Amino acid sequence: MCGIAGKLNFDRARQVEPDLLARMNAVMAHRGPDDAGVYCAGPVGLAHRRLSIIDLSPAGHQPMSNEDGTIWITFNGEIYNFPDLREDLIRRGHRFRSKTDTETVLHLYEEDGPACVRALRGMFAFAIWDGRTRTMLLARDRLGKKPLYYQIDHRGLRFASEIKAILLDPEVEVTPDAEAIHHYLSFGYVPHPGTAYCGIRTLPPAHVATLRDGQLTLERYWRLRYGAKHPGTEADLARELLRRLEEAVRIRMISDVPLGAFLSGGIDSSAVVAMMSRHAAEPVRTFSIGFEAAEYDERRYARLIAERFGTRHEEFVVRPDAAGILPTLVWHYDQPYADSSAIPTYYVAQVTRQHVTVALNGDGGDEGFAGYERYVAQRLAGRLDWLPAAARRRLRAALGLVPRGVRRGSLLARGRRFLDGLLQPPDRRYSRWVFHFTADRKAELYQPDFAAAVSAPESEELLVRAFQTSDGLNMVDALLDVDTRTYLPDDLLVKVDVASMAHALEARSPFLDHELLEFAAGVPSHLKLRGTEKKVLLRRALRGILPDAVLDRPKMGFGVPIDRWFRDELRPLAYDTLLSRRAADRGYFRPEVVRAYLDEHVRGQAHWHYLLWNLLMLELWHCTFIDGDGRLAQQRRNSPAAVKG
């Protein structure tokens, strides 16, 4: 697990500055504290930060070249099937200097070119410079577990694992993207392939980008398919699921450094620990965090699993300093990011890294096997679609009886969202469940000039497009497909990658093994969601392995009490930041609307904490990355490259 960066000048007479590459490396040092390397050859340069996991010897130093030095790679990730690929390449005559997966990818590229990605099983983002054809190749894994950003203009290409590394190049303008902000307000994250910065893009999951002669070509090489369903009984499919899950866990236990697991006490992380215990030579190390507030604390379920499988269990009670941790989170996430579960994820990664370097987790179980409550709501709403429009309008009229701003997650809030979506077509209904700011709230919030500057379609159209391009045979499969292509790579995987790599901790996700997900996509939808029962087949497969108390417990999100924080410890920061002259001068939002959100929430008249968190993280991002006195601006001013320019 590492950080990568690079630059390619289109003018072959312009040399890439080694000190710029070194600075790009330095700003990502947290991703790879064990080693750093830079390769420069005229107009091309590659950089690498290394977190040593496999083959800890100096032979794993990157950037790495082939035997004759004509091809160079900088690689981030883990390829779990690399031993088999390596043996096959040796039989074909390739010579290896290390035992790393990086060198395996390099030689595989020599054999197959860009198509080499199709053979890789794991998580990755890498760049290959092919000096023979003067081609730069960028590639990203199927689900988007590893990040890769790039910027291209008339002068050249820059890329990196983190946007801040690209922004250190003084040739890159740092300008907020109004369209990205518009979508961020709805989703709570910036959807790919855009970013919050004009001109900087995200390489989409399951894509390779090829740059030759100044022309960039993107190609998708994989996609989940939901059309064909597996035959067999429920019992047959449950056995096959368990076999595949165990294999996905087993191959992710390969490591030359200490390894453990995040254990929340939910079904997915518990299943991973159960499978790990079958293959570990000694007790599995497990890590949980808890909170003093009982409604956010899952430790008792984690203890059940730890006792069942005899793990070496560590748990920590977190008393987060909300105001103190925010600048750190904003700096690491690079873009406005409003998933507040980034806070406990950051803390669990921090405490886990004190004991191990690799941690398995349960991410992806909900998207593979239908684990979210909103899937139940969508299916129930779909069953009312046969009602005449007049009848549904009468049902929706009940919406007026539910006040706005009720606590998110409460029965009233869920009922309001459900009723709000009844008159919507199925592909538009989903936004009512997942959006922070809806279109009408944004219309109330925006200043006229900012509204005019946003030329993008309403954010809902992005979800509609995702539904329209899904091959799901029914709403359940379509929901899983859409979440796997949007929410998973842009929210959940960003959260875990950033929070873990901030502490040089490698996070591995067995449920996101692409072969396991392909199997899950072929499971009939009634074995994923049946009535109000979620994860039907997964629960069946794990019955008797996990305690019933874990299998049958209600789902609990990995949350923090931001509702209370805005009334207590975050209150001064929220007022000072969101109602500052600096925020008003941006010209985005009507100050009176923002003040109303704050006042109503603090007085307990409404629960606007998710909207306030969204706005607060956006403004703190501006202060850090956009403003002339922010942390990024200070780093750019201190750049030797900036002085030369």
Q: Which structural category fits the helices and strands? A: alpha+beta
The CATH homologous superfamily of the largest domain corresponds to HUPs
The average pLDDT is 92
CATH topology of the largest domain: Rossmann fold
Tell me the strand percentage band: 5-15%
Query: How many β-strands, per DSSP?
Result: 17
CATH architecture field of the largest domain: 3-Layer(aba) Sandwich
Supply the number of helical segments. 31
Radius of gyration: 24 Å
Number of domains: 3
Q: What is the strand arrangement across the widest sheet?
A: 2-3-1-9-8-10
Helix coverage percent of residues?
A: 40-55%
What distance lies between the first and last C-alpha atoms, to the nearest angstrom?
Answer: 33 Å
Oligomer: single chain
> Which consecutive residue ranges, at least 5 long each, have pLDDT under 50?
641-645
Description:
It is a single chain. The chain has three domains: 2-222, Aminohydrolase, N-terminal nucleophile (Ntn) domain (Glutamine Phosphoribosylpyrophosphate, subunit 1, domain 1); 224-384 and 422-557, HUPs (Rossmann fold), CATH 3.40.50.620; 562-634, no CATH class. The chain is built from 31 helices and 17 strands. The strands form three sheets. The protein has a six-stranded antiparallel sheet with strand order 2-3-1-9-8-10. Helix 7 (267-277) links the parallel strand 13 (259-262) and strand 14. The model is unreliable at 641-645 (pLDDT under 50).
